Amino acid sequence: MKFHIPTVAWIFLSIIKTSNANHGTVRLVGGGSYYGRVEIYWRYQWGGVCDDYWDRQDAHVVCRQLGYSGASRAYGSARYGSNYRRYWLDNVHCRGYESTLASCAHNSWGSHNCAPSEAASVVCYTLSVYTRRFVAVRLRGGQRHYGRVEVYWSGTWGTIYHRNWNNYAATTVCRQLGYQAGYGYGYARYGRGSGPVWMSSCRCSGRERSIGYCGHYGWGRGSWSHAYDASVYCYNSLRYPVSIRLRGGSTYYGRVEVYYGGTWGTICDDLWNSNDARVVCRMLNFPSGGAYGYARYGRGTGQIWMDNVMCSGSESNLGYCTHNGWGRHNCGHYEDASVICSIPTPPRYTVQTRLSSGNLYYGRVEVYYSGRWGTICDNGWDSNDARVVCRSMGYSYGTGTQKFL
């Protein structure tokens, strides 16, 4: 006994000393540096992971724990060799955001019902999660100038999660595709993609030559639904003829709305002045108009299409005026721009008059215009108007004449 106890103790201590792994460390065996059978270190020993419920969510956690951006594949059935060691984990359920495989839900350590042929494996993406580089982009689900954004990373096309997605990020994508600018949409506006979601929380200035150079959360990090895929609508010119309408008022005054990219939107009141209002009112067939801000005729909804509009007053269409760019603004709808257009003075004509349903000197007044006789509405009708009618018919004016009229 005196001989065996120190010998056993020396062997046990040598095992501890010669292993550099910490509890919960993972490694890949039977393959290469970025693919293989998953093993995890626990109680000073390496053991396998059973493939029951094994999927890409679990594989993502393993690959990121190893310093990769995520997993391209999750395999079972001992793809990279059978596990003849013990199994440490079974029925693993990761949500995809865990920092280590050990922190995922699973059976208790060492509790399993697996055979050596049920070992779990992964294939990891080989590029760093934070690498910034030029990446190819394409649009799907729409047409050449609009659609769901997909980026090519680590040999696979994937989508972008719409968190922080805005017109600056969209402009970067559109410029990369050969357009001048663009505006961004979320919530899978042009359909849900498939495969990996490569990027989220993009932070672009709009001047990057590739979306891959924008700041973001990391390639393949997180587990996002394709219901939130980001999209863009690209365009080539800031000067584009638009339709306009007035809302919240009447035919000649109200909140100005423009129709662009298939959607009605408002205008921010920054720099909004009478020159801009004059262009709007002339488009609506009024001679001129006054400019108002601070949502004088109510707040709009949806897009704010234009900001910092600067018209000379001679433009034939509001879309030809200088502005920030379609959809690029720093405004809320409490800053929606409005106009009050000038109503033109009706032209003056010499007309014939007659009295009907009365006598020679009293009756209903009728006027002859455009080849027809017609009546006059009594809104605002008073003795001054009656005096004019009577004089045009050769009568002097007086109370009796005014009374019957």
Describe this structure in words.
The chain is α+β, with helices and mostly antiparallel strands and about 400 residues long. About 15% of the residues lie in helices and about 25% in strands. The protein is built from 6 helices and 21 strands. It starts with a helix and ends with a helix.
Secondary structure: elements and pairs:
Layout: H1 4-18, E1 26-29, E2 35-42, E3 45-49, H2 56-65, E4 71-75, E5 87-89, E6 121-124, E7 137-143, E8 146-153, E9 156-160, H3 167-176, E10 181-185, E11 197-199, E12 231-235, E13 243-247, E14 253-260, E15 263-267, H4 274-283, E16 289-292, E17 304-306, E18 338-341, E19 352-356, E20 364-369, E21 372-375, H5 383-392, H6 399-404
Parallel strand pairs: 3-5, 9-11, 15-17
Antiparallel strand pairs: 1-2, 2-3, 2-6, 4-6, 7-8, 8-9, 8-12, 10-12, 13-14, 14-15, 14-18, 16-18, 19-20, 20-21
Sum this structure up briefly:
By secondary structure, this protein is of the alpha+beta class. The chain has helices at residues 4-18, 56-65, 167-176, 274-283, 383-392, 399-404; strands spanning 26-29, 35-42, 45-49, 71-75, 87-89, 121-124, 137-143, 146-153, 156-160, 181-185, 197-199, 231-235, 243-247, 253-260, 263-267, 289-292, 304-306, 338-341, 352-356, 364-369, 372-375.
Task: Provide the descriptors you would attach to this structure in a database record.
405 residues; 6 helices; 26% strand; rod-shaped; disordered N terminus
Task: Characterize the biggest β-sheet.
Answer: 6 strands, mixed
Q: Give a count of the beta strands, DSSP E runs of length 2 or more.
A: 21
Q: Summarize the helix and strand pattern as letters.
A: HEEEHEEEEEEHEEEEEEHEEEEEEHH
Shape annotation: rod-shaped
Low-pLDDT sequence parts: 1-18, 398-405
Measured between the Cα atoms of the first and last residue, the distance is 136 Å
Average pLDDT metric:
85
- Give me the secondary-structure category: alpha+beta
Taking all Cα atoms into account, the compactness measure Rg is 38 Å
Number of helices: 6
Q: Tell me the helix content.
A: 10-25%
The share of residues in extended strands comes to 25-35%
